[in-house]
Structure of ABC transporter permease:
Amino acid sequence: MTMTTSTPSPATTAPGRVAGGSLGGAFNGSVFTRTLWDNRRSLLVWAVAAGLLALVYASFYPQVSADSMANVPEAMRGFGFEDTSTAAGYLRGAVFGLLVPLLVTFYGAATGARTISTDEESGYLDLLLAHPISRTRLLLHRYAALAAGAILIAAAVFAAMLAVRNSADLDSIAVSGFAAQTLNVALLGLLFGAVATGIGAAFGRSRGAVFGSTAGLGVLAYALHGLAPQIGAEWLRYLTPYHYYIDHQPLINGVNGGDIAVLASCATVAVAAGVWRLNQRDLRR
């Protein structure tokens, strides 16, 4: 009687990382498309959550009374609640100044933490790089998939705004204004995704550590942006990405090229630093 011994497939060795049961399946196409496919469910959840939150809170605008500003705490004025009596003012505070930026910040931190850190932490990164793929290509393709998710989230928010634009009395805001603001939503996600990607690639920390440090930086920057006027140091806002995300009021004024340049440049620098450091590191340590 002949006895056979089965050899564990890579899918068994690294569960959930390779669909189809073979490591080679990870390269049936680009790393970008494979990453998108593997993360399709989580990306859909992020997009649907952002779209629903934006839609629900935007729908509340007709119930906002003319004297609603009297009920807004003074400490919240710096977070975009300077004027809730107009459609643009209300959305700037309740939707684009509070819920959406925090959600997209956490998206960037969570997704960027998976770009390199998860595979390195599990030991799967060595298996990937044993194939004909460079560290640079791997990181850039993974980050491109993150960028596609950020664009999807922004598109969901944009669609939600258009869906309730007339019924929620938001038609005083031009479609181009919504487009400009949601473009900044995507860029904010790209920036924090780049920071998380760069930290993970540069230091080889665990996924939890990368997420925690990036999300912590995001929350700290958000708090600094909101509280700076309260402490008489409004200049500190220029040090945070949230200033370039919303302070020039894209809902009213449209696209601001300077803001886009700052957000995109910071994201590029963070990713480039991560690529450089990843190529210098000894991944076996």
